Amino acid sequence: MDAPTTLVVVAALAAAALFAVAAVVLTRLVRARRGLRKAGLPTGPRWVFWGAVLYFVLPTDLLPDPVYLDDIGVLLLALRSMRRAPDDVSERLPD
């Protein structure tokens, strides 16, 4: 293979790997929200969850879609904000 073809193949493989990572993080985000809601814990503002999902799905991004680093970052921030429980949650949980 010549250099341009090799570059295109490597870029396509990198884009596929980044998409796979973004899909795994999106799955973790959905599972975390479902688990927190099932346990009766607050999941944070709904706009954080739905905003992250929409940012992942919609084609308008900070970086072009073959580069999923911004999508991964937004999903990880949403996952982190959902897993962070407010301080008063421990007061409301029965012993």
Give structural notes:
The protein is an all-alpha fold. It contains four helices and no strands. Helix 1 runs parallel beside helix 3 and helix 2 runs antiparallel to helix 3. The radius of gyration is 18 Å and the shape is elongated. The model has no long low-confidence stretch (mean pLDDT 76).
Question: What series of H and E elements makes up the topology?
Answer: HHHH
**Overall body shape:** elongated
* Overall helicity: over 70%
**Largest sheet composition:** none
- Percentage of β-strand residues: under 5%
Unreliable stretches? none
In angstroms, what is the radius of gyration? 18 Å
Number of DSSP-assigned strands: 0
**Average pLDDT across residues?**
76
Report, as a whole number of angstroms, the end-to-end distance: 66 Å
Structural class: mainly alpha
Oligomer category? single chain
Number of contiguous helices: 4
Quick synopsis:
Helix content is 71%, strand content 0%. With 95 residues, it is mainly alpha-helical.
Topology, please?
Blueprint: H1 3-38, H2 46-57, H3 69-83, H4 89-92
